[in-house]
Amino acid sequence: MADGRARVAASILDADLSNLAHAVQRVERAGADRIHLDVMDAHFVPNLTFGPKTIKHLRRRTELPFDAHLMVAEPGRFLDEYLDAGCDSITIHVEIEEAIEPTLRRIREAGRASGLALKPSTPLSALEPYRELLDIVLVMTVEPGFGGQTFMRDVAAAKILAARDLLDHKAFGAEVHVDGGINRATAEFAGGLGVDILVAGSALFQKGHDMAREIRLIRALADEGFQYTLNDGEPPIPRDKMVSFTSLPKFLALQFMEEIEAGGIPVIMLRGDGQINPDGMRDYDILVPASTEELVVERHAAARDAYLTKAVAWRSAFVVEHGIIPPPDHL
To answer: Same domain, yes or no, for 139 and 285?
Structure first.
């Protein structure tokens, strides 16, 4: 698991297409955070790559998440096949003529992340009608269809930071992706615009380059760009860092966890190493993503105080009724 905020999605478009299983395993060993699958149909874009059957065979080769980028004219027609293939997120293009909303809804109903991509010439406003259905906005900084093109800085500057506003309905998990021309020379600029996921392809598969080093450089430079452009020189909060919000007896912790998660914020509940309750069991820690800590405090600080008061009352009542039960030996 990588430190920091930025994540690298390795596109296998520039890999040896006759041995994609090796390419997937290679980028995983090199430290990529996920696999970016460029699906092209030779209709929406003038290139043809691979489809759901290939993806399904690749799925067994790695546990990395699969981000499918469907550059196809009729994604809804074949969506079930991509879902069955094991894609963790599916992003379609806003420029297609097919109805978009039904496909986004089906992706979400399947429990996957849904996204919309837009070509360099397409304004962000084209995504506005679908914002409530979006988990991902993918900003194309090259023309879709082929790898190895030059990064369009003006497109990135105009869209990446602004794309965040389209995802403000999500308390956690929203992602802005950038795809096209990402390498060590462009990662810092993209990171300074607040991008979450950097799709890198040709930069990783250049002969003579150390793929693992390229991934580390792209990730680190993007974080540096974020730190000094958007975060007042402070290092970004690591994307996967969890912090303790409170500790409670198990039955209260379960109730509070459900309340927090109802607001779209994931919670991990772990048995803590602190107070042992009169029933012989330790309190459970409620952990939330560090990036959401301020929001959780804003939403749930009063409820936390109320739950802590309930915990004190429950402990007192338990002692009166049952006495104190010695903790198990493993505690």
So the answer is: no
Whether 329 is in a domain gets the answer no
Segment 91-131, tens digit of pLDDT? 999 999 999 999 999 999 999 999 999 999 999 999 999 99
Pairwise CA distance, residues 133 & 106, whole Å: 10
Catalytic residues: 38, 179
Burial 44-60 (b: 16+ CB within 10 A, else e): bbeeebbbbebbeebbe
Half-sphere exposure of 120 (CA within 13 A, CB side): 17
> Residue 202 is encoded by which pair of tokens?
């040709």
Please answer whether residues 197 and 9 qualify as being in contact, where contact means their C-beta atoms are separated by less than 8 angstroms.
Answer: yes
Residues paired with 99 in a beta bridge? none
Q: Is residue 235 part of a domain?
A: no
Predicted confidence (pLDDT) at residue 147 exceeds the cutoff of 90:
no
Asked if residue 251 belongs to a domain, the reply is yes
Is 222 a member of any domain?
Answer: yes
Please name the residues in contact with 209: beta carbons below 8 A apart, sequence gap of 6 or more.
203
pLDDT digit string (tens) for 269-318? Answer: 999 888 899 999 999 999 999 999 999 999 999 999 999 999 999 999 99
**CB proximity list for 111: less than 8 A, separation 6 or greater:** none
Residues 250 and 217 in one domain: no
Q: Are 206 and 76 contained in the same domain?
A: yes
Q: Count, in order, helices (H) and strands (E) of the chain.
A: 9, 11
Task: Compute CA distances 52 → 7, 68, 87, 278, whole Å.
Answer: 24, 10, 9, 55
Cα 260 to chain centroid distance, Å, stands at 19
